[in-house]
Every structure is written in structure tokens, then in C-alpha cells.
Amino acid sequence: MRVLIIEDEKDLGELIQEHLEEYGYEVKWWGTGTGALEVFQAFHPDLVILDVMLPGVDGFTLCRKIRQESLTPIIMLTSRTEEADRIVGLELGADDYVAKPFSIRELVARARTQLRRQEALQSTAVVPVVSSITLLDCTLHPEERTVQVQGAPVDLTRREFDLLCHLMQRPGRVLTRDTLIEQVWGDDFDGFERTVDTHIKRLREKLGKDSEVAKAIQAVRGVGYRFQA
Known about the structure:
Layout: E1 2-6, H1 10-21, E2 26-30, H2 36-43, E3 47-51, H3 59-69, E4 74-78, H4 83-91, E5 96-99, H5 104-123, E6 133-135, E7 138-141, E8 146-149, E9 152-153, H6 158-169, E10 175-176, H7 177-185, H8 194-207, H9 212-216, E11 217-220, E12 224-227
Parallel strand pairs: 1-2, 1-3, 3-4, 4-5
Antiparallel strand pairs: 6-7, 7-8, 8-9, 10-12, 11-12
Helix pairs in contact: 1-5, 6-7, 6-8
């Protein structure tokens, strides 16, 4: 998932970027209000972390413009402590408000909360039913529930097939363990998050460790998995 940081303090912006990248997010930092809307439109982030006091165009104006065209979550940062400023930001469409100075760990936790909500919304969106999905050396038939790697059939359990199907239907997108558990196991799950890791390991082995599709199932440390075609 993608995060856009619009913050004029370079050291702070890079620090936030570094911490978010540790969780596997794709992060872009922009240091001024000028051109920020164009960066937002080109980058298509899943979350915006937006400073109020920016050179060129202030954060309140940017928040309003972003909200006019997108429902992307916005966390506003400010050194202002007045309640009126927080109310203005929230009324303009911000989803959260963090006052400076703040704990980086708290900001990252708030950001991850917003991103989990976004991912849940995206993951529950209706995915068009297709007769087959072919990526790299793997062809998957969702309705027939069959898989071929390099033309040869692969026998998968129901959970293994569902994991592969969810990942291949959303190439490039990081799916958290919680999301995979919810989508694949649902209410039947009564184990631990590492159950996902065990199933992914077995899935890779069945697909063939040297196959392109097995290598495309990538772990994102501390977050989950993605299919990188």
C-alpha cells in the first residue's frame, strides 16, 4: 500500500518515511504544498500524512482539494494546539489529527490503523469473476478451482487454493495476515497468525520452489504477503 507524506521538515519527513517503509509500505515524501496535489494525483496513495503549515499551499487548502476528488484517508500534522484548528481540519475531511511534537511510534500506529481499514475495504470489494488468471508460469481457474504450473496440474488444499487465488487476484498489493485470515478462514479460524506462514510455505513447495509463481509470493516483513508478478 502507498503512503504520501507532505511535510516541509525534511528530517521529520524522512524519519516518518523510514519507519513506514519498515512495514513494507511504498512511501513518497514531498516537501512543499506547491505541486502536492499533482503528486497526489500521480502517486494514487492509500493514505496521506499532511502537515498544516506548508510553504506554497497550506495543509488545510490541500486537505479540502484532496477531499473534493478522493476519499483517501488523511492524517494531519500540526504544531498548532488550538481546538479550533483541529476542528477545521476534521471538518475539511481529515480522518485523524496529530499535534507536534509527537511520538513516531504513535503516528505509525495511527497510520497503520488507517491503512488496515483501507485494505479491508479494498479486499472486500467485488472482484470480477473470470474463467482463468494467468500470471508468470501459473494458470488458475477460480470457478473450477484448478491450478497449472508450467502446464502441469498442481493439487492444492482448499486453503492453499484460496490463498493463491486472493494473492493472484490482487497482484502487487500487500495483504496483511489479518486480511488473509479473514478472507480465507473467516469465522472458522481459531489458530495463530503464523498459521498463514505455514500454509504459504506449503503452497510454495507444491508450486515448485524454482517456479516463477512460487518466487512471486513475497513476504513483507511484519505485515503479510504480496504477489509480485
